[in-house]
Amino acid sequence: MVVVGHVDAGKSTLMGQVLVKMGHVSQRVLHKHEREAREQGKASFYLAWIMDEDEEERAHGVTIDVAQKHVVTETKLITLLDAPGHRDFIPKMISGACAADVAVLVVPATPGEFESCFESSGQTKEHALLVKALGVNQVVVAVNKLDAAVPPWDEGRYEAIKASVEPFLRQIGFKAGKAIAVYSYVARHFLQVRFVPVSGLSGENVAALSSDCPLSTWYRGDTFLQAIDRFTAAPRAVLKPMRMVCSDIAPTGKGVVVSGRLLQGRLQQGNRVLVMPIGDLATASRVEKGGAQPGPARAGDSVEVTLTGVDVTRMVPGSCLCKARSPVPVAEKLEAQVATLDALAVPLIRGTEFLLHLQGVDITAHVSKLIALTNSAGTVIKARPRCVPSGATAHVQLTLSRPICVERYSDCRALGRFVLRQKGQTVAVGLVLELKA
Ligand SMILES: Nc1nc2c(ncn2[C@@H]2O[C@H](COP(=O)(O)OP(=O)(O)OP(=O)(O)O)[C@@H](O)[C@H]2O)c(=O)[nH]1
């Protein structure tokens, strides 16, 4: 579960509060954070410090890298990925989104703050769009900081925020339900978009709603923890060839420890694996999943694998583990269907350069052929166009600055979808149709 939203929306605080409510943080540690945050003049950030463990993050009061924790709810083991909200760290947020099945979009209800984070320069819309483009189909929108709305816990403010966010999420492809259906059992379980009023800082409606909180006079829905427990697990491609993209790589005395997510297939201790694109064979001498005990892992699991027999200096984040009998393809030219966004300032032409983000890989790429303008179903409207404007769908050939592990979307969804960015803005999202020699 990736937690996204504009900078300072309260993502880390809400996740810190979740960990406190679930008993993952001792009183001693909590008091230590409270004391140290106060001493640094950042008293209100003490809960965020549970997630933001890096000194630089604490000094600046911003999340820089994706923080990962595990929690067990009533029916699920959830890996929390707390993504940075600041626009400078969007590539990190993208890597978090790539590793997620579901998302929590945090929006602040404070006067003026919601408005600035939801307008075009705010990160709320870009984050929502990115998670959808990267394969997330279910989102809980945490309408946060309602304790600081004017008046506090104002139902009108909550409904107004819902009325702004829901149509946008529907427009970008989430199946949002009609408000009237929210109270039916079926809709509650299968809606792709659900809203929860909450205060990460006070903890109100995170695990429970106090009877003396004004929210209890008008809200009858789920707490935040109930809402995330209702996420449905995404289908797992357990029978497809094994793929694991390494997001972190650390040499240790016992071998190279790589962490990441098993995108497809299964992996267990003792398996021989091929490390691509370098082509080295290694042994998975230890496999751990979800911060738990060693044991076999399957598609969807967040895993930590100790590899022996591989040269750590040749591995980079984005290296992919697979089995030698079904190696992951490596390519530097691909044919793709891209959908350009309103943020694309200048139409695409041959030679247009981007930064392409695919799983953990950020790489420069350029348009080497404009094949056709299409409709969203992929039917050709105009062959060999001279340019692709914003808001269009097209088939293009992209050439990357080096070969990477990539697959056709029809073969492996996770390795076949990407986003294109220019000058710090997401300008297009795409699916790989073919790999070219
Ligand atoms: N009043 C109020 N303040 C909150 C709440 N949640 C967070 N804040 C405050 O908002 C500020 C930012 O909180 P963070 O949790 O660091 O926000 P973030 O979204 O994780 O920030 P980045 O990760 O840097 O994007 C801090 O001062 C928090 O105390 C809330 O529910 N109510």
TrEMBL record:
Keywords: Cytoplasm, GTP-binding, Hydrolase, Nucleotide-binding, Protein biosynthesis
Compartments, as annotated in UniProt: Cytoplasm; Plastid, Chloroplast
Family annotation (SUPFAM superfamilies): EF-Tu/eEF-1alpha/eIF2-gamma C-terminal domain (SSF50465), P-loop containing nucleoside triphosphate hydrolases (SSF52540), Translation proteins (SSF50447)
Source organism superkingdom: Eukaryota
GO cellular component entries: chloroplast
Domain (Tr-type G) ranges: 1-236
Catalyzed chemical reaction(s): GTP + H2O = GDP + phosphate + H(+)
GO biological process, one term: translation
InterPro entries: GTP-eEF1A_C, P-loop_NTPase, T_Tr_GTP-bd_dom, TRAFAC_GTPase_members, Transl_B-barrel_sf, Transl_elong_EF1A/Init_IF2_C
Family: Belongs to the TRAFAC class translation factor GTPase superfamily. Classic translation factor GTPase family. EF-Tu/EF-1A subfamily.
Protein name in UniProt: P-loop containing nucleoside triphosphate hydrolase protein
Source species of the chain: Tribonema minus
Taxonomic classification: Eukaryota, Sar, Stramenopiles, Ochrophyta, PX clade
